[in-house]
Amino acid sequence: MTLSDLFEVDVIRAVGLAGATDEEKDRFLNMAKDEILERVLERIEEKLPEDKKGEFFRLFEDEGVSEEERTDFVNKYVPDLGEVVAEETLVLKKEAIGLAKKFGSE
């Protein structure tokens, strides 16, 4: 089991979806991943110099850009990307657990 799998199992249990169907679990996890991605993109945009924001979005929207170019750009301008992703994942996890507890106590 990978670290990602463990995280997903932990979150599924924590929000009370352990007994949910696989489809419901997948839908929840996909929504969570989309939210994390959106938050990470916002943080990246905050960190980038003004003159690099357009280049960032071009690199990630253009299918002709190599993965190496994208990686080089991120390593240069957002060297703490892993930390940003981890922080936003933890924040969302805490929020989801808090909501689950709130609805579970009502």
Describe this entry's structure for a reader.
This protein is mainly alpha-helical. It has one domain. It is 78% helix and 0% strand. The chain contains five helices and no strands. The chain has helices at 3-14, 22-47, 53-61, 67-77, 81-105. α2 packs across α5 (81-105). The longest helix is centred in the first third of the chain and has 26 residues, at 22-47. The N and C termini lie far apart (34 Å). The model has no long low-confidence stretch (mean pLDDT 86).
Distance between the termini: 34 Å
In sequence order, what are the helices and strands, one letter per element?
A: HHHHH
Q: How large is the radius of gyration?
A: 17 Å
What is the general shape? elongated
Number of domains: 1
**Structural class, judged by helices and strands?**
mainly alpha
- Major β-sheet annotation: none
Q: How many strand units?
A: 0
Q: For the residues shown, what is the average pLDDT?
A: 86
Q: Tally the helices.
A: 5
Beta-strand residue percentage: under 5%
The portion of residues assigned to helices is over 70%
Oligomer: single chain
Q: Regions with pLDDT < 50 over 5+ consecutive residues?
A: none
Compact summary:
The protein is mainly alpha-helical and 106 residues long. It has one domain.
Name its key features.
106 residues, mainly alpha, 0% strand
Layout of secondary structure:
Layout (H helix, E strand, L loop, with lengths): L2 H12 L7 H26 L5 H9 L5 H11 L3 H25 L1
Helix pairs in contact: 2-5
